[in-house]
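Re-running the complex after MR caught last week's input typo. The corrected sequence lines follow. Everything else is unchanged.
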Amino acid sequence: MLPIDVIAVLGKFGGYAVFVLIGIGFGVSLELAGFGDSRRLAAQFYLKDMTVLKTMFTAIIVAAILIFLSAAVGLLDFAQISVTQTFLWPGIVGGLIMGVGFIVGGYCPGTSLVSVASLKIDGLFFLVGTVLGAGFFGESLPAFEDFWNSSFTERYLVSDWLGWSIGATLFAVTLMALVMFYGAEKTEEFFRTKGSGKAWSWKITKRSYIYGAAALVFTASLVWVIGQPDPVRKWSLMESRYSAQLSSRDVFIHPLEYVKTYNDASIKLVTLDLRSESEFKNFHLTGSENVKPENFLDPKFAVPLSQLPSQGVVVLIADSDSVSAQAWKYLKVQGVNNVYILENGLRDWNTIFSGKTVSGKSINIASPPSEVLQLFPKDAFTPKIKISTKKRSGGLCS
Amino acid sequence: MKKKPKPFKNPYFAGAILGVVLFSAYALTHSGLGASGAISRIHVALTKLIWQTHVDVVSTFAVMGAGDTNPLDHASVFLLIGTFAGGMISAWYNGRLKVEIFKGPQISNVQRLIFALIGGLIMGYGARFARGCTSGQALSGGAVLSLGSWAFMFSVFIGGYAVAYFVRRLWAESKLT
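Corrected-run output:
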């Protein structure tokens, strides 16, 4: 199931080679579109040549349809895709600055690379400028660092904002792009000066444009109809990937390991207690939260858990291991890292911790201190928690 | 040898290829395309050669190259190498590999190069501000429907259109009346 992590699969060397290959594809497509030519890029802003808009939105729509279609049919796990983090206002201010740089300099960073690669001197000067500009940014950042880190949301999609399903959003975005393309064609017709633009290698008939547009709309509506998989369907698709961790009991932790983790200040621990409300009221571990098993099917419930800091650990507590295993599955397929189950729930808890004393004082068994661990032999439990600090966000821009 | 450059591909066709490349980037590497991150890394690598202590002090530089960290040991740099190679291959194949300066007819070469440098400076600054460039933020984020990327994308266009009128002499084809 996609995505695969080439660096994990092929090692660093092979992985980097794949990045070079993808880069070649990127460079070729930019060059083919004519993005190595600043005049063509700048013409976008004088409405004479809308290549930038057309190429960019076609690429976005095609990639989005491929991504969400493969997610809908279970070929790709969207929870594992790195979505650039949203810093809304810094993004907007940065975008405005970049628009100015674009029209003054005639390129953006990616296109200036292609321009340099085809030996254009203006592209080279632009690229040198971007290298220096990146430096100036770092130097000046302390003056407005708070703003730069403001209005942050880890993973916030247009569909979340609209409150629509991903399929409906994709369909609307596709329609919007097609309307924009139609507008772009009309605008070009109106503003084009004689002798510029329209020298494409392919003469495409009006009919093939309509077929192309129809294919996009059809596929987008197909994605909408199929829908993105819910946690239950995702588990049936991804069972083979994760079920070994359950059967080998690698994710079941001993109460002593829980105590160790609980007292480790470097770990952000989230403890979810799936028992009934009355049991929870009767006794619960300090800091734990009472949740219902059906909550785990709600994507909104899993979102904050999948966005814990990299040192975040989630521990599930339930009366029976099968209930917590079910919840574990649903969290896992929704992209939550470092999820563990407290073995046997709280059934062994009392026998292990009641009556224990630390330096003469009996302990609070709802939050045993770490000193308690010294009362047990070193091999009383096998440590299972391995924090995977895999960072899925940020991507290549950082 | 005088070779006439081939015409560019239909923009929708080029866009569709770019879309497939972007999808394969996501499918094979978890993340999309980008260029500005690697450009920043080149800057840090150059700074490191002459002023290591400074790299350790400035927060955004330290992330990439503090201490013994090699700022160029990162996937984005290899993507950048590929982008460069791809651009060169395609330009060569299509007869566009030629030393020249693209500019509007009303300005001199020197003026064009000065403005390219200034534009690059603004762009490089803005790209760090927005945490990504047109390809990383707009294209890649747009394809996964990230709200911030869409807001960013429209603000790039707004910024460009807002200033375009004032710098029209840079690009205008005929004498303005």
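None of the earlier attempt is carried over here. The radius of gyration of chain B is 19 Å. Chain B touches chain A through 130 residues (CB under 8 Å).
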